[in-house]
Write a structure and sequence with these properties.
two-stranded antiparallel ribbon; binds iron/sulfur cluster; High-Potential Iron-Sulfur Protein, Chain A; 2 domains
């Protein structure tokens, strides 16, 4: 009886972990990069690429097409290797932009 109860509890915990991962609850908890953050300023990060006024920027470039963007194509935001622990806007841009291969 005790063993059955333990197995039931283990299945319940596993199911709840899988549900959390499937809903992306952990990813959504990450804060967005603030354009005023020192690192964001040094990389000229803008959450809206259409507002970028930088010589390196080329029309059509955005975080969603950057090799460092960790979100999916349809995500509005996602992680970025340059800003660990935070999310960048899919429509954003910074000078570290590198087109996805
Ligand atoms: S490195 Fe790429 S994904 Fe990250 S902020 Fe810059 S342009 Fe966006």
């Amino acid at each position: 009886m005790e063993m059955e109860r333990r197995i039931f509890v283990m299945k319940l915990v596993t199911a709840s972990c899988m549900l959390g991962a499937a809903t992306g609850a952990h990813a959504q908890a990450k804060p967005m990069v603030n354009e005023a953050d020192p690192q964001a300023v040094s990389l000229n990060y803008k959450a809206d690429a259409s507002k970028v006024k930088h010589a390196k920027y080329q029309s059509g470039q955005a975080c969603s097409s950057c090799a460092l963007f960790q979100g999916k194509a349809a995500d509005a935001a996602g992680g970025c290797g340059i800003f660990p622990g935070k999310q960048v806007a899919a429509k954003g841009w910074c000078t570290a932009y590198a087109k996805k291969a």
